[in-house]
From TrEMBL:
Every Kinesin motor domain range: 3-430
Keyword field: ATP-binding, Coiled coil, Microtubule, Motor protein, Nucleotide-binding
Pfam entry (one): Kinesin
Region (Disordered): 333-354
Polar residues bias spans: 344-354
Protein name listed in UniProt: Kinesin-like protein
Record family assignment: Belongs to the TRAFAC class myosin-kinesin ATPase superfamily. Kinesin family.
Gene Ontology BP term (one): microtubule-based movement
């Protein structure tokens, strides 16, 4: 099951907006408990617009981060504590408040924590209670933190010096984010996945999160001088040392398999390229050794599953995923070509094409899931590829997804704000499984 909700958050008018008038807007609640929004034109190049009943809630400029967390994230935490996954996306043009909402800027005031830090603070309170009376260190519950950003078609591990990572689809059909290949002793080849930092206290997690944020790439855009030119992803997973150790064992077994599998392939090719009789016995010996190492990997993978199934806590593996999407000022609405747009530099145009592809792909994935299509276009962009597992969950794990539209009240940003709301309108309709075929 996958539920999708859409919220809208208006930010206050900032001093950097200049002497601009504010956009006039209003919302209306409908019988289905969803809300529609309408914009009043603010200039000769703008025109009125009204959404359908697609939004779950609208936050005004006076609502702080605590209010947003209480309405958006807090209701999903009981599901996370049952081992389920919840995804949160912040979508909007640069400078509209996405990073403020997801990450926050005040890391010492709980009322102004971004959603990811506030969620971690709440979860640690719950995990401390669950850990009481459990003296076995390997089974103590904590939070595993992964933090990376996507730029163009590459991932960067923000908890490992922003190292370059590769996005690959594995033999299991799952998408994996892998670091550089390491050649070890005895021909072992290890491809490390993106790092998980195990945090056993809230202060540990806050420290790691801040260290990662320092490495996040920003750039100058036509809208914002510290624009996020990447999609930043923060994953919080409930883990134990035992679970992390068994996952590391899988990586080690895989590294042992690589040279053995390569040797088996080389021997097979050598024998089949011969002009004389093939030494089938040599091939069989190599294949048998390969099968032995494959069985060892399977055994390690089964041990991971056993740890998950045998845990006395349902919350193990529960996950929160927060995605601070890159600025959407490049999202072009072909239906309104007359809406003025900022002039873009050549670099912005290049980055914008990939950002646009990612954001459109995300919309199509959500709509395809709402239509219950057999084929969902996860492969259409790197962003949707890495989010595939979070969207799909598993046969036993549900996934709940939420999008927060962040919008500016500045009349100068009328077109960008309208485009953000149009995007959210489509997402909201798809998420409610109504008019999703539009």
């Amino acid at each position: 099951m996958n539920q999708f909700r859409v919220f809208t958050r208006w930010r206050p008018l900032a001093s950097s907006d200049g002497p601009q008038t504010e956009i006039k807007w209003k919302c209306e609640e409908h019988a289905n408990a969803r809300m529609s929004m309408s914009l009043v034109p603010s200039g000769p190049n703008s025109r009125p617009w009204k959404s359908e009943a697609a939004f779950t809630q609208v936050f005004e400029a006076s609502d702080n981060n605590q209010s947003v967390f209480d309405a958006v994230v807090a209701p999903t935490l009981p599901e996370v504590l049952k081992g389920h996954c919840s995804n949160f996306f912040a979508y909007g043009h640069s400078g509209s408040g996405k990073s403020h909402t997801i990450m926050g800027y005040d890391f010492n005031n709980p009322h102004e924590f971004g959603m990811c830090l506030a969620a971690a603070h709440h979860l640690f309170g719950k995990l401390e209670a669950l850990n009481e009376g459990n003296s076995e260190a390997a089974l103590q519950l904590g939070i595993g933190l992964r933090m990376y950003e996507l730029r163009n078609k590459t991932a960067f591990d923000l908890l490992n010096g922003r190292c370059n990572c590769h996005i690959r689809e594995g033999y299991d059909g799952q998408t994996h984010i892998r670091g550089e290949t390491e050649v070890l002793e005895n021909g072992k080849v290890r491809v490390r996945p993106i790092i998980i930092k195990a945090c056993w206290s809230f202060d540990d997690l806050r420290r790691e999160l801040l260290a990662g944020l320092v490495l996040r790439a920003t750039g100058t855009s036509t809208v914002h001088d510290q624009s996020s030119r990447t999609h930043a992803v923060v994953e919080l997973e409930i883990v134990t040392r035992a679970l992390l150790d068994t996952r590391n064992a899988v990586i080690e077994r895989q590294s042992e398999l690589v040279p053995v599998a390569k040797r088996a392939t080389d021997i097979y090719l050598e024998e089949n390229l011969k002009d004389y009789q093939i030494d089938q016995a040599r091939i069989d010996v190599a294949e048998a050794q390969k099968a032995e190492f494959e069985a060892s990997v399977k055994e390690a993978e089964d041990h991971v599953e056993k740890i998950m199934r045998s845990s006395r806590h349902r919350c193990l593996g529960g996950m929160l995923v927060f995605v601070d999407l890159a600025g959407s000022e490049y999202y072009h609405d072909k239906a309104t070509p007359s809406v003025p747009r900022p002039k873009q530099s050549a670099q912005e145009q290049q980055e914008g094409r990939q950002i646009n592809t990612d954001l459109l792909s995300l919309k199509e994935v959500i709509r395809a899931k709402a239509r219950k299509q057999a084929g969902i276009p996860f492969r259409s962009s790197p962003l949707t590829m890495v989010l595939r597992g979070h969207f799909m969950g598993s046969s036993t794990v549900n996934s709940h997804s939420t999008m927060i539209l962040t919008v500016s009240p500045s009349s100068e940003q009328f077109a960008a704000t309208m485009n953000t709301l149009k995007y959210g309108n489509l997402i909201g309709l798809a998420g409610s499984d109504k008019k999703a075929a539009r």
